[in-house]
């Protein structure tokens, strides 16, 4: 069957069984046509998104209600204040959400389009990253270790993550900018990197290591490694950061949600306090954050101590430098768990991309490295650190994914009351 016919069949299957259409598109199409299938799958996934009352998605649904009768002049007034970093009450802090909310809720009068559009944008940048990293010869033998490394890169922030709307969309946009610039040196990718603060305010800070890493060749790579190790020895003073933030209302608001003092004048991290009080199963407690961050650090130590950084390809070295500097920023900012968490998640995507590129070209293979048994052992130790993440991803996917992603998606579009998660449907039968 010709590729165009297979693409047409895959698109048709998406409307019958999105999962089956996705499978056919990935298995039988080249990346040129596969990208469209994956983006369409994300859009359909967004149209059937399952979310809890306290989730990020639920908060955005409530936000959309305030945009239904918003005038164009009011939109621009609020946009101006967002750009000036002084958003009006009940207004989002970011240009991205403000624009999408106005377009779907006010102009289109179709709030239900918000998440499909968000999913489509997220899916576009996600699949563009995948198409540039996950490339190998057609008949290449894929070992179990390589498949696990590829899986870790795919699920780090995948289809279930777009419902946060800003944070991980910003991550994939920044990653595409970094990857594209180091591959082509085209300055349009620098512009893409500069756009990330429009998606999420935090990328004013999180994107800084990516820009610094552009000049990594001007210093010895040992300097970057030294900064990374130094970052474990201390962090920025939280109180000092709050004092600096007092000059701007938005910065002050953000900092107070990340770091504050209790009634005794003691420094506390409200996110960490809440996290410690939360009772959850082991894979939810460790798989969402700790497993990912420790796993990323483990791979980093593995690459450095084994000396792999000396034999990297230029694109691998550029991504690794970005990952090291971003991880250093996360460590220096560890006084706030929320800041640390977001920044380290960004760092891990560069580290996993580096490891994936190296694994695909066989950098860890027998006959290529000395002391293969030792290298292979520690490689698997790094992979196993991510086990809670893998289990958490599966559980989270079952909770957030509509049963109609398996088949008959139009039923979920016709009657929202019939829309149920895969886990909920399984629970009813059991």
Shape: globular
Fraction of residues in β-strands: under 5%
**Arrangement of strands in the largest sheet:** 1-2
Q: Give the topology string: H per helix, E per strand.
A: HHHHHHHHHHHHHHHHEEHHHHHHHHH
Q: Treating each run of at least 4 consecutive H or I residues as one helix, how many helices?
A: 25
Number of strands: 2
Largest sheet: 2 strands, antiparallel
SS-derived structural category: mainly alpha
Report the span from N to C terminus: 41 Å
Spans of at least 5 consecutive residues whose pLDDT stays below 50 are 259-268
Q: Give the helix proportion (percent range).
A: 55-70%
Rg (CA only): 22 Å
Our count of domains comes out at: 2
Rounded mean pLDDT is 87
Keywords: Membrane, Transmembrane, Transmembrane helix
Transmembrane segments: 12-29, 36-52, 112-129, 141-159, 189-215, 221-245, 292-309, 315-340, 347-364, 376-395
Protein name: EpsG family protein
